[in-house]
Specification:
Elements (H helix, E strand, L loop, with lengths): L2 H22 L5 H27 L1 H9 L1 H23 L6 H39 L1
Helix pairs in contact: 1-2, 1-4, 1-5, 2-3, 2-4, 4-5
Length: about 140
């Protein structure tokens, strides 16, 4: 797959999750959605790295770490955005203009970081993985 395809696929998946959490922030069912999203992303990232280590040993650890740059950017941003979305949902900030404005501003910032994580996944991670695969 080309780097452009990896970038577009990552962008699609990241933004789909962003939209779900953003929209859920306006309703009371935000907490289970965000907890499931964060837990699932952490589980899949950890399980994938553990599988690489189990299958390839130390070389698998190096291969798994090469893909962690974009995952770290994405997961940290996901946790921050999820916590803010839950806070917005629970505190009934929907009627307070200042709180709603802050939610939208933080959402735009997190949206931008999600895009940066996708860019990192498409170009930086694929470069590192290609370099490591050639060395293995």
């Amino acid at each position: 797959r080309s780097r452009w395809e990896v970038f577009l696929n990552s962008l699609y998946l990241n933004l789909r999750l962003f939209i779900v959490i953003f929209v859920a922030g306006f309703y009371k069912f935000t907490i289970p959605i965000t907890l499931f999203s964060v837990g699932f992303e952490g589980f899949t990232s950890g399980f994938t790295t553990a599988s690489f280590i189990k299958a390839f040993g130390p070389k698998g650890l190096l291969f798994g770490l090469s893909g962690m740059i974009s995952s770290l950017i994405f997961i940290v941003n996901l946790i921050i955005f999820s916590a803010w979305s839950m806070n917005f949902s629970v505190n009934n900030g929907k009627t307070d203009r200042f709180f709603k404005k802050n939610y939208l501003i933080l959402s735009v910032i997190c949206f931008t970081i999600f895009c940066v994580a996708s860019l990192s996944d498409g170009y930086i991670t694929t470069t590192f993985m290609g370099f490591i695969v050639n060395k293995l």
